Amino acid sequence: MSYEELDRVRVIERVIEKRLTQREAARMLGLTSRQVRRLERAYARDGAGSLASKHRGRPSNRRLASDLRRESLATVRSRYAGFGPTLAHEKLTELHGLKLSVETLRHWMVEDGLWIPRAHREPRVQQPRCRRPCRGELIQIDGCDHEWFEERAARCTLLVFVDDATSALMELLFCESESAFSYFTAMRSYLAQHGKPVALYSDKATVFRVNTKEPGAGTGVTQFVRALGSLNIDLLCAHSPAAKGRVERAHLTLQDRLVKELRLRGISDLAAANAFAPEFMADYNRRFACAPRSEHDAHRLLQSSDDLARIFSWQETRLVSKSLTLNYKRVLYVLDPTDAARAARGKRVRLEEREDGSLCFWNGEHALLATAFPKEHGVQAAEVVDSKRLAETMEFIKQRQRERTEAKLAKPFTTLRKARLLRAGTQRRTATGASAEPQP
């Protein structure tokens, strides 16, 4: 019996013992006095079991036909072995015309042993992996979004670089969010201090990996991976957070110790936190870093040909038109008519955007100069206007004249006659040159 039914038994017993009236019992149970009298007679005739629901243990009147269950499970067992309930339901509905819900099929498959719920599965075994033998061979990288300054400043992200061989912190960078440019900044600082590692080990974030199986455009390589490839550094992506457990465990320590150190020093902005990061890394490595198995340092020196300013930039390609123009971020750029620009006509040139927003255009190894012409252009009276800007300038003039007219119409002291004249002055002329009739 349910708890509600047990409470009902105790109330009916008090009624039979004359310790409670039928009207009071009806109010307590939410029933009528007539129903209480019926329950009292049933209890006196068959005991407490008569107050239990008669539907318990009996099949529902709304149950699906047993033939449908038998056919569905037989089809799943013979044709869709290993399919999950959702996918199996799609196949049964689309290909076999069987009408049932996903949850009904899930219950049937669980009862028949064709599907094991996630809660009942054996936990995945995460076997340990030996450290890499030498320093600089594999660097685990990850970003940790946390309230590093607690309530003193806004939430931000900390980029963490951990050496796999020693668990030492190699680089810390506070930034607003995980982005290509934030990792560019952290990587440049890392290279300046330690040199080029053999490989980096990261998660499958979009900064590191194009997760679309069939990208609609582009090379299928992220900007960060492209930059690492230019430096002959490989990047590996972990399948699970446990695979890069050293940097994940470092997050827990940093969220405890680093937050408290920032609080003790009253640091509450990114610049001050990044200035304090080297001091904290030195103390952290002294306490927690271990010695590598090999004394060899796998870091490589930067080459004189490694132009980090160009490598760590956002690079895309654009098609040059016959008039030596190209578009980027809804801005038209006109190339200076040099020999290198004329040679790029009808071809794709490389565009490099730096973190400060500056742009460089390259045709092979030849730099191209360009002038930007945004959509909106200001113009002053008697200004000398280049012919290339004439169309944009005329549109700007027309828009400004319409705004002046609307501003005059909006003034409270503008008379009806003056308003009609202003509207008549803004009407377009017909093909014959006659002015259109003003609106009343």
Question: What report would you give on this structure?
Answer:
- The chain has 440 residues and is α+β, with helices and mostly antiparallel strands.
- It is 40% helix and 15% strand.
- It has helices spanning 3-16, 22-29, 33-46, 66-79, 85-96, 102-112, 180-194, 223-230, 245-264, 270-288, 308-311, 339-343, 390-409, 416-425; strands at residues 138-146, 156-163, 169-175, 199-202, 234-237, 314-319, 325-328, 331-335, 348-353, 359-363, 366-368, 370-373.
- It has a 5-stranded mixed beta sheet with strand order 3-2-1-4-5, sandwiched between helices.
- The relative contact order is 0.06.
SSE map:
Elements: H1 3-16, H2 22-29, H3 33-46, H4 66-79, H5 85-96, H6 102-112, E1 138-146, E2 156-163, E3 169-175, H7 180-194, E4 199-202, H8 223-230, E5 234-237, H9 245-264, H10 270-288, H11 308-311, E6 314-319, E7 325-328, E8 331-335, H12 339-343, E9 348-353, E10 359-363, E11 366-368, E12 370-373, H13 390-409, H14 416-425
Parallel strand pairs: 1-4, 4-5
Antiparallel strand pairs: 1-2, 2-3, 6-9, 7-8, 8-12, 9-10, 10-11
Helix pairs in contact: 1-2, 1-3, 2-3, 5-6
